[in-house]
Amino acid sequence: MPSAIVLATVNAKYIHASLGLRYLFANMGELRSQTRLLEFTHDRPAAEIVEKILAEKPRIVGLGVYIWNTVYTAEIVAILKAVAPEVLVVLGGPEVSHETELQAVVQQADFVITGQADLAFAQLCRQILAGAVPRKISHAETAELGQIQWPYAEYSDHDLQTRLVYVEASRGCPFRCAFCLSALDKTAVPFDLERFLEQMRRLYDRGLRHFKFVDRTFNLQLGHSAAILDFFLERLTPELFLHFEMIPDRLPEPLRERLAQFLPGTLQLEIGIQTLNPASQKQIDRVQDMERSAANLRWLREHTHAHLHVDLIAGLPGEDMASFSKGFNWLYGLGVHEIQVGVLKRLRGTPLAERAQNLGLHFDPVPPYLVLQTPDWPFADLQRLSRLARYWDLVGNSARFPHLLPLLLADAPFARLLAFGDWLFATTAQTHQLSVDRLGKLLLAWLVGDGGCVAETAEHAGRDDQTHQARAVAKSRRARQDRSVAAENAVAATGGSR
Fold first, then answer.
1. Is 384 inside any structural domain?
2. CA–CA dist 189, 206 (Å, integer)
3. Under a CB-based contact definition with an 8 Å cutoff, are residues 308 and 269 in contact?
4. Calpha distance 72→109 (Å, rounded)
5. Is residue 382 a part of any domain in this protein?
6. pLDDT digit string (tens) for 208-217?
7. Reduced to 3 states, what is the DSSP secondary structure of residue 81?
8. Alpha-carbon distance 379 to 364, whole Å?
9. What is the CATH number of the domain that holds 372?
10. CA distance 97 to 139
11. Residues 219, 362: one domain?
């Protein structure tokens, strides 16, 4: 059956299920029955995506544009307008909400909605279908959260069993970190707690066990945070998995009591440290109590089973390689499980994007707009750091080398990691397509060479890691089989419906 409206986006990976698209779909009102939701990934040719969209015979196509898909979306729009110029293309999303008129993809499209378009997209579609001629670029006024329909019923049973399901208990952020789009928010606004928990109950009853909260500051409002944790503690099983993003220097006792009750493997906390450099913190308007942050991280490490994922950003103004290395070593010394080494990006609309020229920051003009050079970071150093971030994900954050990793980092973690990264790139000229087996052999070669390790010690650690990897593969295979059976059972139980 033809759909008057198609809502579509290109996700970074299949496992990511778009929360924004589902908000739009849930708020289509009387147009919902005429609307089709389609999701794609980068591994599909743009022409095939257009073919799939046009098979719905739409009058309107809404596309979500993000930093990871903006180039790909531009190709999709170009093909759409070439083969079906009568189809009206509406763009929305953070990437086209700022510096809007300067973008080629905007020039190709028929309409653009900037801001949070939960309700505005349906309103625009009504105008178009009624024969009106809206202005090309419109700004969506932020709606009261109580006016917005919940998106969670739009996750299919297959989504719940096989994909990352995103949820949000609040919107916005009260902080003003200049590199982040949340700096434009006035504050964080929570959804109605009782109604939100009812939505979570429905997802849980449908079989969802992995909840990824996208709130910027989950632990900001103690009453809401505690109630949400209580909700999941009442349903705590080894299969449950929760992801929260938390402020590092705020961990009152009621939250500690609850976090300590979660079972191993059920809780992941993403904690944005970003930088330990006071001068850098000042330049990016970041307020952070580092002593309290350190104490909280130590407490979480010692008194909970939470997996601690901590973020650092390289390339911030006021910081150089030496300063960044101190931050990395400090976090490694605290024993956090995962240090996410990121490189500063120029996000459209952020205060830092506006200050970039005055601060001497130079960014790649192509997404994801990584910083190339600053007064404190020469281009060559940022190139090395970008490669190091990739290698660190493969060697450290992947948890594939628990026995070789301590030998790699030894007494000077960042310096040794950087030296290994330089050697690895000089040896392979690759940052991708490095198999686990090959990477392990290369790591072992560096350790017994430039790394100064005793060969017997390193080889023994390498054999232990091979055993660890084999067990991990077997465990992952069993988990995939279990999820597949669960998905088939869920679909069968509902007759194949949502």
1. no
2. 27
3. yes
4. 14
5. no
6. 999 999 999 9
7. helix
8. 11
9. 3.80.30.20
10. 8
11. yes
Phi-psi region of 315 (alpha: psi -120 to 50; beta: other; left: phi over 0): left
Residue 209 backbone zone (phi > 0: left; psi -120 to 50: alpha; other: beta): alpha
- Residue 367 near residue 71, CB atoms below 8 Å: yes
Evaluate whether residue 385 is within a structural domain. no
Domain boundary among 146, 177, 209: 146
Distance CA 400, CA 466 (A): 9
Q: Which amino acid is at 104?
A: A
Model pLDDT for residues 82-114, shown as the tens digit of each residue: 999 999 999 999 999 999 999 999 999 999 999
Q: Same domain, yes or no, for 408 and 491? A: yes
Q: Show the tokens assigned to 93.
A: 């999303």
- Is residue 417 situated within a structural domain? yes
CA 217, CA 59: separation in Å to the nearest integer?
39
Count: domains in the chain = 3
Which amino acid is residue 325, in one-letter code? S
Residue 315's CB: how many other CB atoms inside 10 A?
Answer: 26
Please report which confidence band the pLDDT of residue 473 belongs to, taking 50, 70 and 90 as the band edges.
confident
Q: Which of 98, 115, 146 is the last residue of a domain?
A: 146
Asked whether 305 and 265 are in contact (CB, 8 A), the reply is yes
Domain span including residue 99? 5-146
